[in-house]
Prior knowledge:
The protein is built from twelve helices and eight strands. Helix content is 51%, strand content 12%. The chain is elongated, with a radius of gyration of 21 Å. By secondary structure, it is of the alpha/beta class. The longest helix has 18 residues, at 196-213. It has an eight-stranded mixed sheet with strand order 3-2-4-1-5-6-7-8, with helices on both faces. It binds guanosine-5'-diphosphate (GDP). Guanosine-5'-diphosphate binds at residues 108-114, 145, 252-253, 255-256, 278-281, 285.
Amino acid sequence: IFDRLKQGLTKTRKTFQDTVATLVHRRSIDAELYDELEEKLLAADIGFDTTTALLERMKKEARRQSFQTADQLIPVLKEAMDEILTAQDHAMHTAAQGPTVILVVGVNGVGKTTTIGKLAHRYTLEGKRVMIAAGDTFRAAAIEQLAVWAERANVPLVRQAIGSDAAAVIFDAVQSARARQVDVLLCDTAGRLQNKSHLMDELRKIVRIMKREIPDAPHEVLLVVDATTGQNALSQAAMFKEVADVTGVILTKLDGTAKGGVILPISRELNLPIKWIGIGEQIDDLQPFMASSFSEALFS
Ligand code: GDP
């Protein structure tokens, strides 16, 4: 699983190794080095605030421990990254009894449908009974795509006609999940962003209606963001944090991008735990996020 992670992170690892690690090779520590480091960290999509914090930390340790050479900064950087990533609770919350309800939110195109299929597959392999609810009733293609993934994962899909009320679909699914003793109910939602207050209303309505059946639902509100969009993923996460009670983030498409560093500002600046990472298009290309393995993989 660690090798798979390393492989999945190939491009992001290259960014860290080719730039940061090469930069510190056989150099002394001076202002110019810190300037260059800053540039490289920003280019790795770590964002301004987090880059500044990482630099401060390196400077402080360099002084405190009287470092002689720049490569001594790397373990400090790694440790600081670990601290950022391990600060949150990455575990998935589950229902004490009855179905665990997972609401999946995010804009179109980020990989939401694929991720729901992957999660369904994963929980099925764990021996859980899984059901999917097609809560994006706005796009016919979204429902069809979800049906394809439900079939692949071999789990039932609750759907209604295009244009029907999303909250009604979810209510139907929650009732059905209880009746059929489902363990995990994965609820898709619409990803239209044009109108923030509309999105907020729709998500609120869905949550209010599911609580009628299961008062402590949803047990997770997972936001899917696309790592290839870098800083855009960060601003989407900030936006969704405002409109919904997001409990965690799924970062997709890490395999195709050098922008994986965006994981750091999402954790540090938004204080949102990364719960899963997508590292490919296949059904088993989803991994639970393991904070300590991430920076290890970047620097190995
Ligand atoms: P949605 O509109 O958010 O539901 O997005 P889809 O699930 O339809 O995915 C959009 C595209 O992203 C598809 O071509 C997927 O195969 C691709 N995709 C999703 N997750 C990943 C991933 O982790 N890695 C890669 N390389 N592609 C992905």
